[in-house]
Amino acid sequence: MSGLHLIHSHFIGGLLGYKIFYTPIGDSSDKAETEVVPASYTSHSLPFMDQYTEYIIEMLAFNPAGDGPRSHLVNVRTLQ
């Protein structure tokens, strides 16, 4: 997900981690799957995505005060 970047200088307090939200485009449930990733991670794979499927992905950072703003939306298509 090279299109999603967070700027660490925007955080107040200790960064605890990231939440990654992904939803298949055209999914009638409109419910995003969520992965929670520790702050120490610099990359993360989303292994439960379906093959040959288009997704909308966004993420946010969180700290003890709560969730930060969500990133811009990124559209991706999975491979085989």
UniProtKB/TrEMBL annotation:
<protein>
    <recommendedName>
        <fullName>Fibronectin type-III domain-containing protein</fullName>
    </recommendedName>
</protein>
<dbReference type="InterPro" id="IPR013783">
    <property type="entry name" value="Ig-like_fold"/>
</dbReference>
<dbReference type="InterPro" id="IPR003961">
    <property type="entry name" value="FN3_dom"/>
</dbReference>
<feature type="domain" description="Fibronectin type-III">
    <location>
        <begin position="1"/>
        <end position="80"/>
    </location>
</feature>
<dbReference type="InterPro" id="IPR036116">
    <property type="entry name" value="FN3_sf"/>
</dbReference>
